[in-house]
Design goal:
single chain; about 240 residues; alpha/beta; Rossmann fold; five-stranded parallel sheet; two-stranded antiparallel ribbon; 11 helices; 7 strands; about 50% helix
Length: about 240
């Protein structure tokens, strides 16, 4: 059973989301919040698996909320280990098509997935299930918009965590470059002439080594670390 916290500043929409998600046997809504501060408090108290956050909160409020929910002080990122605290909640952001530019900042803050807010109920419940497992959910249109925004607008700068790049093998770097270019596991497998299951293992190893919680966050790391450089015509691997 996946526990969910609903965050939306419209009471009728919160009610609609609660009713929709409660109807799904594999989900349980443990609470709701109308703003960022309430969401942070509820997340700390209720420890949901997934926080469904509507991005119509003010941009600053939404980004701060994502950061404080997904990276709370004193909470480990690994669940299930003896003596460890439960993992921090995953954040699934519901966003409008005209707010794609906010995806970059939200990913850096720790969001685990994005879904357009006009998605149908089946897409939403499926996305919650995927994000709960630690995998990423992001619509194809948002993926392309994110990658294009990074290529054209983002200025690469050194980050403290770039030491993780040195821990990657050559093959893992190749996989990360492909992930940052928006390729699927099947496409990467075909390119490298390896099995899709092997690609999945490489991706998991990459995420662990660079400290990313989800595939979409590996995209930001690839650009911020300098492995991929923004270019007007597609991604280019750093020399």
């Amino acid at each position: 059973m996946v526990s969910v916290l609903v965050v939306n500043d419209q009471s009728l929409q919160r009610l609609a989301l609660r009713m929709l998600l409660t109807a799904e046997p594999s989900l349980t809504v443990v609470g709701e919040a109308a703003d960022g501060d309430a969401a942070i408090r509820a997340s700390a108290a209720l420890r949901p698996d997934v926080v469904v956050l509507d991005s119509r909160l003010s941009r600053a409020d939404a980004i701060d909320t994502i950061r404080r929910i997904s990276r709370p002080a004193g909470v480990t990122r690994i669940a299930g280990l003896p003596g460890e605290e439960p993992a921090a909640p995953r954040v699934l952001v519901l966003t409008a098509a005209d707010r794609e530019a906010d995806a970059w900042a939200a990913l850096r803050a720790g969001a685990g997935g994005f879904l357009l807010n006009d998605a149908d109920p089946a897409e939403l419940t499926a996305a919650i299930q995927v994000v709960a497992t630690g995998d990423a959910v992001i619509t194809p249109g948002l993926t392309r918009a994110l990658i294009d925004a990074v290529r054209h607008q983002h200025t690469v700068r050194p980050l403290p965590r770039t030491a993780g790049l040195g821990a990657l093998t050559r093959r893992e770097r190749d996989v990360l470059i492909a992930v940052a270019s928006g390729w699927t596991n099947a496409e990467i497998a075909q390119w490298l002439s390896i099995a899709p299951t092997t690609v999945k293992t490489h991706v998991s190893n990459v995420l662990a080594k660079i400290g990313a919680r989800a595939r979409v966050q590996a995209v930001t790391f690839a650009y911020e670390s300098g492995l991929i450089r923004p270019a007007a015509r597609g991604a280019t691997a750093a020399a």
